[in-house]
Amino acid sequence: MRARTLEEANMSGDVRSRVVVLGVGSGDPEAACLEQADHVLVAPELESAVLFYAEAWRVDRVRPGDAVSTVADLVALDGPCTVALVVPDEPAWGAVVDGLRVAADAEVTVPGTAVVPPRLSPLW
Question: How confident is the model at residue 105 (pLDDT cuts 50, 70, 90)?
Fold first, then answer.
């Protein structure tokens, strides 16, 4: 599942912000979501994998305790935008996703796709 661009969201009449939560590891790579996102938030330990796919000026580190308020601030300040949140598979981050669904005025999706670190990407 790929993230919709703002143009696609506006054409459909949906002007809410979107938060797409991605994991890191093997699986279905979703680099397009990182390319289309207005903001990319990432757990510090995963930053090197994300910087392979997204420009550094759009990438910010975030910790579990600050993630919900950071996303809510971005959505409130930027208006309709797309935020990609790249998280490890840890219980603390699961609670963050639940908090985003309650606190952020945005559509939160967890497509089940992953950002594949460059060292795990197959060479074709």
Answer: confident
